[in-house]
Amino acid sequence: MYKQESKAGSFQWLLLISVFVVATCGLIYELVAGTLASYLLGDSVTQFSTIIGTYLFAMGIGSYLSRFLKSNLLSWFISIELLVGMVGGFSAGILFILFEQVVYFRVILYTLVILTGTLVGLELPLLMRILKDRIEFSDLVSRIFTFDYIGALFASLLFPLLFIPYLGLLRTSFFFGFLNVVVAWIVAYKFRNEIRSYHRLKWSAVVCLLLLASGFILSEKLTALAESLTYPDKVVYARSSPYQRIVLTRSVMDWRLFLNGNLQFSSADEYRYHEALVHPGLAQMKAPKHVLVLGGGDGMAVREILKYTSVETITLVDLDKVMTDLFQSNSALMKLNHHALTSPKVRVINTDAFVWIREHQKTFDFIVVDFPDPSNYSLGKLYTVSFYKELYRILAPQGCLVIQSTSPFVAKNSFWIIDRTLRQSGFLTTPYHCYVPSFGEWGFVLGYKESLSQHFNLPKDLRFVNEETIRQMENFPPDMRVAESPYNTLNNQVLVNTFEKEWADYTR
Amino acid sequence: MISRRKFVKHSMQAAAGSSLLLSALQSCTTPSAYPSNLVGPNAQLGHMLRTGKFDAPSESSSADVVIIGGGVSGLSAARYLKKYTGNFILLELDNDTGGNAMAGSNAISAYPWGAHYLPLPGNNDPELIAFLQKANVITGFENGLPVYNEYHLCFDPKERLYINNFWQEGLTPREGVPEKDRQEIERFLALMHDYKDQRGSDGREAFAIPVDHSSQDKKYRVLDSISMEEFLAQNKFTSPYLRWYVNYCCADDFGSSLADTSAWAGIHYFASRKGKAANASSDTMLTWPEGNYWLVKQLRKDVVSQIKTNTLVYSVETTATGVSVLYFDAATNKTKQITAHAAVLATPQFINQRLLKPSLNRALDYTAFQYAPWMVANITLDATLEERKGEKLCWDNVIYGSDSLGYVNATHQQIGFHGNQNVVTYYKPLLGSDIKKLREQAYRATIEDWKTTTLQDLRRPHKDIEHYIKQFDAWVWGHGMIKPSPGFITGETRLQAAVPVEGKIYFAHSDMSGVSIFEEAFYRGHTAIRRILERDLFKIS
Q: Which residues of A touch B409 (CB under 8 A)?
């Protein structure tokens, strides 16, 4: 028998509102998965269409499976809503965490999508069956689908306009999971007299809500962990040393090393950078014996230096032991640097270059200074007159040093400040630059005490540098020149301020 | 790739934006406990001076000169004297020398407990310049100007002010300050700048370091009869921003407020620093992670063997041939006597009052010497602080509207990479006119009290600072700095204090200058020794 009219009305409305919420949540999970997949895996068109397709197909599976649920439809409906809330709510968080750890990321991604889709697909048929005896069929179909589509519109508009900007991806997903579970609980409460397992459902709902709420609260930490979003390629190694975040990515094309998110090299063209860094200076030295490398823990510069048979010792000073260990032990990376760091000629010292150099006395014939760009005040100290004067002190009279000097195209004022600072510290200089596809136009400055020989003793197997290239590298077109430059000191840090501004303008 | 970055950036910002709920939840949890200590001078030994029961001295020795007090003035005196004789002794109450320039250290950095910088000294101060040259702070001269060792010049970025929820560069309020107030600040600074170049009718600089080299011209001396507050009012400076700034400056240099600082001293802060360098702007500071304790180490380098710490001098009197100094040696638990031709008291007047026998001919109104109490906290942080918008962490970081002086980053002058760990030194002069009460309160306050007030202040720019603290130590200076109250600089008492007793007891403490700065202490130390040497009391070796 039908219940009283008013009670039946509220009953209907409650279930229809839950249709609305279910539809909204369902679409949100789909959008979250699509967005995540396109940002994590790239190629948004492919990712979105395959995710949506899979999701819709999974809903079909769910609809099909609904026929096997014969009795206790209300408790089934509530249980499924709880499950959807949990799976959907946690899907984004799970994908974030697993992306870096798991090789078969796609498998997990699509499993989650299918699971969510199936559960969401179960909901509507179940609901229709619950309501079929209580509402006229034509009314039922019309109302259910109306609410379903309104929910979809609601979700698809609010997702990009409100939820992503204000809650972020993870929180959105947890939030809707929460909403889903709340609706399930309310439905369970309203129909507590019609279902046998009300208490079991109530307690499940409470547990689900607690879990989702803690996920919501912790999602800030998860987001911080999910740096993978910043990298275009697959992250194969990620570790924080006390000094920096080291991330290695791999694609079909190349290996890439990022320090604190900044590209250090791409294996596809790093030879250009490292040949240009080492050879124009070192090839002009007459039988160089002792070489110092500051920074450059990847061993690539050392690889180039080892091509000179006269070299007896290479001292590599790099702050970060994690970095030098990685390039001394990982076989793929050692292939890149030709096992340079394990050469008996090489001595690796893990300490602060500035502190080390102030205490060092013996001179070197050639010095490579390959620090990260002067993007903060700590690094800026390594580009000052004070530091260069220490370099001057430990450079042999006929020796020469080279400094990686950022991009003379993007940060031309910064580049020329480095040149000016070297001259202020007593060096004669030769600035030069070359094109490294993954970096763009890149600059270096040679510093020396006595004019260089201009006679180049280049190793045979170089791929980029020859005498002709060197001549070209020394030519600066007008768009990479400046009229005048200040010099960088510890107490003005003019380089950091200039560099920051130039790169900010460029990347704006 | 850029769009992907932007996406992440936005979703991070969104995460930050919606963290209100989060922080509300987090604030329920108490921050983890970290060690906190109240440190300070050797109070126990110092207290014995008041209780005053000592056995008769068990042994006696002699020297040419005894210097009492191992602060900057005492060490400067010792270093100067060493050029003429090695037969002297310096007695210091504490277990280390340094006085107001004391420092501490931990695994992350050395840090100051007091004075922490020296402005470029004027080029008419040859003795200070020579000392800095010896210490390799000045490496040479170019066009007559000293070339400073870059390692000792304050690195960039130097100063920032937290105002209107923003860290602006520099300390004069600017960000969000109305045009009218900015103009007033400009007018004030221009006026101060004028004073810098002025000379009195006697040809002397209007405001000089040392203070006693300043002009005696009435035109300037009359400024000592009013407070800095009255000076501002007379010159129609009413901007609250300017008032805060000038009050901050008085607190910074003297530990006293606008109302309690003589206008002469207040202007002296702005108009006396005239140092120039060949390789730095004239407003650059010399500073070190350990603050002026670095200078202390240079001062005492050659006199280490003459220094005796943990010794409490309790009596100084004149004899027929010179002086007799009685002290308690805490190391051996014995009282001892030293006789010498002369004594230099490099101790503040409130100590001198207890050391000198009342029978001695020194009629001095000791109450004229008032000292501002201070609290200095060193806070060790194990991660980079969360920052508000604007300028990044500087050497000096000041909070607008606060009555503290903000904090100095001790690791700023470190050359090597120190990761994200920092030690910051927080300075708080206790401002007010009832000094006695303030001092009692300061002595009564527990480390928890200091932590509460300090963090309350620092939470404004760094809301989660508690979560980053690894260690919190505080030092209370009961008598931190001499207060140049109106009338003190031009008053007779200050000059009387410097008059030697019977040609045998000399005074060197910087409280006699009315301003508590390194230059004055250095000058006072030298002056005392010069006067002794003039009298030919002993054979110069």
A: none
Helix (H) or strand (E) holding B381: strand B371-381
- The domain total for chain A is 2
CA B290 from chain centre, in angstroms, equals 13
Catalytic pick among A370, A419, A461, A479:
A370
CATH of the domain at A225: 1.20.1250
What is the pLDDT averaged over residues A404-412? Answer: 95
Measured between alpha carbons, how far is A363 from A398 in angstroms, rounded to an integer? 11
Cα–Cα distance for residue pair A442/B16, rounded to 1 Å: 36
Of A230, A251, A281, which closes a domain?
Answer: A230
Identity of the amino acid at B46? G
CA distance A402 to A365: 12
Q: What is the pLDDT of residue A134?
A: 76
Inter-chain touch B150–A490, beta carbons under 8 Å: yes
CA nearest to A168 within chain B: B11
Q: Give residue B522's pLDDT.
A: 98
User: Nearest chain A Cα to B154, which residue?
Assistant: A491
Measured distance CA(B471)–CA(B428) in Å, rounded: 18
Expressed as residue numbers, the domain containing A335 is 273-507
| CATH number assigned to the domain comprising residue B63 | 3.50.50.60
The answer to whether B143 and B136 are in contact (CB under 8 A) is no
Q: Where are the alpha helices (DSSP H) in B174-262?
A: 179-197, 218-221, 228-234, 240-254
A-B Cβ pairs (cutoff 8 Å, strict): 90
| First-to-final CA distance of chain B | 77
Indicate the SS3 state at residue B33: coil
**B58: burial class by Cβ within 10 Å (0-12, 13-18, 19+)?**
exposed
Who among B2, B15, B155 is closest to A168 (CB)? B15
A280 burial class (0-12, 13-18, 19+ CB within 10 angstroms)? Answer: buried
Let me know whether A381 and A492 are in one domain.
Answer: yes
Which residue is closest to A171 within chain B, CA to CA?
B15
Token pair belonging to B122: 């004027």
Q: What is the pLDDT of residues B526-536, one digit of tens each?
A: 999 999 999 98
Q: What is the pLDDT of residues A174-229, one digit of tens each?
A: 999 998 899 888 888 888 888 878 888 888 889 999 998 888 888 766 665 655 55
Please give, one letter per residue, the 3-state secondary structure of A130-158: HHCCCCCHHHHHHHHHHHHHHHHHHHHHH
Instruction: Find residue B381's DSSP bridge partners.
Output: B422, B469
Strands B311-318 and B323-329: antiparallel
Best residue of A39, A492, A495 to probe chain B, by most B CBs closer than 10 Å? A492
Give burial (CB, 10 Å; 0-12/13-18/19+) of B471. Answer: middle
Annotated active-site residue A370? The verdict is yes
pLDDT digits (tens, 9 = 90+) for B496-522: 999 999 999 999 999 999 999 999 999
Q: What is the distance in angstroms between the Cα of A414 and the nearest Cα belonging to chain B?
A: 17
Which residues of chain B register pLDDT less than 50? 1-32
Q: Is the pLDDT of residue A22 over 90?
A: no
Residue A322 sits at the chain B interface (C-beta within 8 Å): no
Tokens of A88: 């959907």
A337 in contact with chain B, both atoms CB, cutoff 8 A = no
All residues of chain A having their beta carbon less than 8 Å from the beta carbon of residue B8 are 39, 229-230
Q: What is the CATH number of the domain that holds A412?
A: 3.40.50.150
* Prediction pTM value: 0.77
- Specify if B82 maps to a domain: yes
User: Residues of B with CB below 8 A from A384's CB?
Assistant: 150
CA distances to B77, B130, B132, B149, B209 from B124, in Å: 20, 11, 14, 19, 9
Q: Do A214 and A308 fall within a single domain?
A: no
- Give me the count of residues in chain B: 541
